[in-house]
């Protein structure tokens, strides 16, 4: 209750620009969309391990039994990967939740099937076979995966970075979160909690907020969660 009240006060005290966003039913603390369009959220109903997990059925979010978490990603088959408050990583496999070896702080998937996580020490780990393997050391906070399977990340200084032939390349500063779609759409939340989209011929364009989390679907349409846990979907400009 205290968390919800504080978030609501922050939201009411912040300038809101939702002119091109439509609200959808439900509440969430995090959101993810798979390459094929499946939308999943982390809810606001506290449970052991975090909060309940929900799937959008086209009209409402329905709860998935037996799972709770704080971060979520959705793979190319529409299956969720969940990080809980104990840093366990679990995924839906066939008919059950599977506990995966190791621990993480964030997880992201790519349209090519690749999965990356941020380890407890801040390095980037790639899921290979049946386990995560550390690929890049560093102080990372969030991760996203491009359609080619390459990781993009936000480091602990708020820099958005991506891999290049010479190493990590800085893309922009003042970044809090990133989401990437299979059509190469790139959305970020800046440190002022505003949504920004990258337009190749223009650069970064601000697109409303404030938001706490953002995700991108296969059509490049962004979904976002506000500070007071409302869920919005971007409409055409």
Total count of strands:
24
User: How many separate structural domains?
Assistant: 1
Mean pLDDT: 92
| SS content category | mainly beta
Radius of gyration: 17 Å
CATH architecture: 6 Propeller
- Give the helix proportion (percent range): under 10%
CATH superfamily: TolB, C-terminal domain
Order of strands across the main sheet: 1-24-23-22
Low-confidence runs:
5-16
Largest sheet: 4 strands, antiparallel
Q: Which topology does CATH recognise? A: Neuraminidase
Coarse morphology: globular
Order of helices and strands: HEEEEEEEEEEEEEEEEEEEEEEEE
Instruction: Give me the number of helical elements.
Output: 1
Q: Termini separation (Å)? A: 36 Å
Portion of residues in beta strands equals over 45%
Q: Regarding CATH, which class?
A: Mainly Beta
Q: What report would you give on this structure?
A:
There is one protein chain. A four-stranded antiparallel sheet has the order 1-24-23-22, with no helix packed on it. The chain has a four-stranded antiparallel sheet with strand order 2-3-4-5, with no helix packed on it. A four-stranded antiparallel sheet has the order 6-7-8-9, with no helix packed on it. A hairpin with a 5-residue loop joins strand 22 and strand 23. By secondary structure, the protein is mainly beta. It has one helix and 24 strands. The chain has one domain (2-234): Neuraminidase (6 Propeller).
């Amino acid at each position: 209750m205290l968390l919800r009240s504080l978030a609501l006060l922050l939201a009411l005290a912040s300038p809101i620009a939702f002119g091109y966003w439509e609200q959808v039913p439900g509440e969430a603390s995090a959101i993810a969309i798979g390459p094929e369009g499946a939308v999943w959220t982390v809810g606001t109903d506290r449970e052991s391990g975090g909060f309940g997990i929900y799937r959008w059925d086209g009209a409402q979010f329905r709860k998935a039994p037996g799972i709770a978490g704080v971060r979520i990603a959705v793979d190319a088959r529409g299956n969720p990967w969940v990080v809980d408050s104990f840093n366990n990583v679990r995924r839906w496999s066939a008919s059950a939740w599977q506990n995966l070896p190791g621990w993480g702080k964030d997880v992201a998937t790519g349209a090519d099937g690749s999965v990356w996580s941020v380890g407890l020490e801040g390095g980037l780990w790639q899921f290979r076979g049946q386990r995560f393997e550390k690929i890049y050391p560093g102080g990372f906070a969030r991760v996203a995966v491009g359609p080619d399977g390459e990781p993009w990340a936000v480091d602990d200084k708020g820099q958005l970075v991506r891999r290049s032939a010479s190493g990590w390349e800085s893309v922009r500063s003042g970044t809090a979160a990133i989401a990437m779609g299979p059509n190469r759409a790139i959305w970020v939340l800046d440190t002022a909690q505003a949504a920004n989209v990258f337009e190749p011929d223009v650069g970064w364009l601000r697109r409303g907020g404030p938001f706490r989390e953002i995700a991108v679907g296969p059509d490049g349409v962004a979904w976002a969660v506000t500070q007071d846990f409302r869920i919005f979907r971007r409409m055409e400009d």
